[in-house]
């Protein structure tokens, strides 16, 4: 093929409307990725910049001097941040497990079992979306205090062991699962519990993963409720601990940025591990919705 034919073929491809749309789409997506990446780079850049450089002012994409002294301080010399990370991981993991279990059982009972009042119960669950979360703070605090659960993990976990969002998502997903699978299973002698555990849950792995990621991230980032029910430094979660460090080191931006980086790093790792499941869930919901 001559150079003229190659040039003509390339020109035709570039002038094609689908190709232009794809180029524009990728340009916008990569541009947005860069915009979202800049704050994280700035956070890491400040965390490794010495105070002697920060005190001079100015802006540098790459600091003229690097130091990992603050990282060493919190990762080696002051292990309290490990305790906060363990507390946050424990609370987020248990909360996520309970939400997936309870919400999936509620959704299964609404979509796959026959009992009176299903529509009314679902309507009440959906109506709870309209109630602001702050309205429940005082009743929840009173209940947790009466149960003697103050200053414990369960004071944070139990109030959020189920939620309307998870029920709504799972109800919509379970309705798209063919009923023929359930009928065939019942002919083979499967009970409702076995159908739920052996058929419905395995088929719902994508939506359960997406919901689990959402709940885990939300639980990891909780601040107001843990701040209300916890008063022991050893039981603090990472968001509360980071604010504590910020107040103590208000004049040290590198210390603040290091604590923020340490608090956000586990979530970044979780997303990288489960991003395929999240994307497949979104694609499946788009195809069935």
UniProtKB/TrEMBL annotation:
What are the UniProt keywords, alphabetically?
Cell membrane, Membrane, Transmembrane, Transmembrane helix, Transport
**The organism sits in which domain of life?**
Archaea
Residues annotated as coiled-coil are none
What biological-process GO terms show up in the record?
Answer: transmembrane transport
Q: Does the keyword Disulfide bond apply?
A: no
Q: What is its subcellular localisation?
A: Cell membrane
The transmembrane segments are: 23-41, 84-108, 120-141, 153-174, 195-220, 255-274
Q: Which GO terms describe its cellular component?
A: plasma membrane
- Specify the protein's topology with respect to the membrane: Multi-pass membrane protein
- Domain (ABC transmembrane type-1) spans 85-274
Q: Does the keyword Membrane apply?
A: yes
The principal localisation class reads membrane
InterPro entries the record matches? MetI-like, MetI-like_sf
- Quote the Gene3D superfamilies the UniProt record gives: MetI-like
**Family membership:** Belongs to the binding-protein-dependent transport system permease family.
User: In its UniProt entry, what is this protein called?
Assistant: Carbohydrate ABC transporter permease
Q: What is the native source organism of this protein?
A: Haloarcula rubra
């Amino acid at each position: 093929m001559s150079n003229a034919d190659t040039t003509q073929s390339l020109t035709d491809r570039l002038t094609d409307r689908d190709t232009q749309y794809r180029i524009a789409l990728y340009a916008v997506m990569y541009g947005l990725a860069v915009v979202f990446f800049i704050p994280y780079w700035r956070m890491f850049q400040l965390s490794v910049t010495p105070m002697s450089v920060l005190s001079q002012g100015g802006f540098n994409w790459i600091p003229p001097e690097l130091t990992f002294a603050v990282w060493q301080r919190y990762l080696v010399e002051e292990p309290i941040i490990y305790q906060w990370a363990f507390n946050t991981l424990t609370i987020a993991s248990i909360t996520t497990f309970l939400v997936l279990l309870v919400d999936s059982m509620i959704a299964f009972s609404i979509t796959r079992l026959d009992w009176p009042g299903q529509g009314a119960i679902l309507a009440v669950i959906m109506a709870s979306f309209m109630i602001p979360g702050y309205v429940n703070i005082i009743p929840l605090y009173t209940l947790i205090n009466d149960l003697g659960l103050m200053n414990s993990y369960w004071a944070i976990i139990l109030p959020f062991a189920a939620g309307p969002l998870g029920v709504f998502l799972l109800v919509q997903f379970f309705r798209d699962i063919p009923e023929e699978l359930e009928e065939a299973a019942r002919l083979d002698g499967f009970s409702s519990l076995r159908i739920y555990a052996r058929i419905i849950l395995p088929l719902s792995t994508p939506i359960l993963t997406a919901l689990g990621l959402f709940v885990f991230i939300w639980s990891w980032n909780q601040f107001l409720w843990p701040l209300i029910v916890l008063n022991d430094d050893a039981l603090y979660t990472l968001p509360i601990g980071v604010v504590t460090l910020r107040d103590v080191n208000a004049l040290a931006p590198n210390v603040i940025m290091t604590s923020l980086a340490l608090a956000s790093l586990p979530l970044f790792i979780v997303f990288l591990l489960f991003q395929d499941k999240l994307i497949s869930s979104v694609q499946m919901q788009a195809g069935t919705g």
